[in-house]
Design brief:
72% helix, 5 helices
Length: 172
């Protein structure tokens, strides 16, 4: 190949560029030998009262969904008035989702909040699907699992902190 041969000057320029890159890379690596500083301090632990208030707020925002489920589940089972109950539940879910997203939560309670939000998002998706379809059942089951996981997580936190348990039917 006539164009592929390089003159000695070209090769020297290529090696010089390569040597420069290697030198820069090594210089950057040299600074990485420093020991990392101490980890940042843990955030302050909320008081019992603050933790309880945080969790009670989450439960209060979710609870209307649990109450509205009875009418919806009866209509779903009997297939009578299902459209009206679906519409009503959809509104309750949207309201609860908005409230939960605005709530502040810390530590393990923040993880529980994320599960509640994910569960309500799944429930909203389910309510947008035809009843008993595969997409409905998948989203609905996901919502139930997330809600139960959130409640279990909050109960575990409350047990560790020796707080009064949340009512089991407050989140379903």
């Amino acid at each position: 190949m006539p164009g592929s041969a390089r003159s000695p000057a070209d090769r020297s320029t290529a090696w010089t560029s390569y040597d420069l890159l290697v030198a820069l890379a090594l210089a950057g690596c040299h600074g990485s030998k420093r020991q990392p500083g101490p980890p940042p301090p843990a955030p302050p632990k909320p008081s019992f009262r603050a933790l309880d208030a945080e969790q009670q707020r989450l439960v209060a925002d979710y609870e209307p969904v649990s109450r509205a489920l009875t009418g919806y589940e009866l209509a779903y089972r009997d297939r009578q008035g299902l459209a009206a109950e679906t519409s009503a539940l959809r509104g309750v879910v949207a309201t609860a989702l908005g409230r939960l997203r605005r709530d502040e939560a810390t530590g393990g309670t923040a993880r529980a909040k994320a599960l509640l939000v994910a569960g309500l998002e799944a429930r909203a998706r389910a309510l947008g699907e035809p009843a008993a379809s595969a997409a409905y059942l998948s989203a609905w089951n996901h919502s139930v699992v997330d809600a139960r996981r959130a409640l279990t997580l909050m109960q575990d936190i409350r047990d560790r902190e020796r707080l009064i348990p949340l009512p089991e039917d407050s989140i379903s």
